[in-house]
Amino acid sequence: MNPNEIDRETLAAIFASRVSLAKRTEDEAAQDARTEHQKTMIWLASNSKAEGSFLWMCGEFELDASAVRRAIQEKRT
Fold first, then answer.
1. How many whole angstroms separate alpha carbon 64 and alpha carbon 73?
2. pLDDT (tens digit, 9 = 90+) per residue, 53-76?
3. Pick from 75, 56, 77, 76: which is nearest to 65 by CA?
4. What is the value of pTM for the model shown?
């Protein structure tokens, strides 16, 4: 695929996500965000190296997991 072309699969996923969010009330969306944040914090703390895990993604993007975790913690405090 031409790098300048929009990845239609990604674009469709973004569109579907936004439509789904628009169907929620503001309170429902806020609760969903809190739940997603809790799940993300568990994912971030995990030491799993399985596909899709935090450590696996850091490896895919050639990032130092400790440095990423440290940067997140610094931003949160």
1. 14
2. 999 999 999 999 999 999 999 998
3. 56
4. 0.74
Hey, where are the domains in the chain?
Answer: 25-76
Three-class DSSP category at 64: coil
CA distances from 74 to 14, 23, 67, 69 (A): 29, 34, 10, 9
The answer to whether the CB of 31 falls within 8 A of the CB of 21 is no
Write down the H helix ranges in 1-77: 8-22, 26-45, 54-60, 65-76
pLDDT tens per residue, range 34-53? 999 999 999 999 999 999 99
> 35 is written with which tokens?
């739940």
Cβ 50 vs Cβ 56: under 8 Å: yes
Distance CA 43, CA 37 (A): 10
Q: What is the DSSP letter of 50?
A: S
